[in-house]
Amino acid sequence: MLDNAVENNEILDGEIKTDSAGTFAFEGGEPANYAKLAMNEIDLSIDRHRSKQIDRDLVEWADLILAMDSAVQEQLTVMYPESEDKIKLLKEYVFGNDVEEESLNIEDPYGEDLDTYQETRDDIKNTIEALVKKLEKEIKEI
To answer: What is the 3-state secondary structure (H, E, C) of 36-53?
Structure first.
């Protein structure tokens, strides 16, 4: 979703590079069927997406690593302590202190029902839209 948002943004396209990886990802795994359905509902196909495991090369390449939930953020910090300063919780990075602590995490809906995937999709979509605005502003200030 972030890839698409960046590619379709005239300010960010070419300025921001994105990648996606997981801490418990099955290398080469396909998205869950409910994930595909939820994304197709908003005209975003993830049928070709394949999961990959985060590794040291990707961590070193990234200027910023955005974790979906605090458990993943903590795990990444343990795995890559030298990169702790660039590992951020997505919603905390985007919204700062404007979000209640219990709302900071975007939980992985894996194994849940379609409604949960749709709710998660909408949460991510809204957060990505706010992230794009934040990044646009930061790039304009450079």
So the answer is: HHHHHCCCCCCCCCCCCE
What residue spans define the domains of the chain? 2-141
**Burial, 12: exposed, middle or buried (Cβ in 10 Å; 0-12, 13-18, 19+)?**
buried
CATH architecture of the domain 2-141 equals 3-Layer(aba) Sandwich (3.40)
Three-class SS of residue 99?
Answer: coil
Model confidence pLDDT, tens digit, residues 8-62: 999 999 999 999 999 988 899 999 999 999 999 999 999 999 999 999 999 999 9
Sign, CA dihedral 56-50-70-135, equals positive
121 C-beta neighbours (distance < 10 Å), count: 20
Cα(117)–Cα(140) distance, rounded to whole angstroms?
34
**CA-CA distance, 26 to 16, in Å (whole number)?**
26
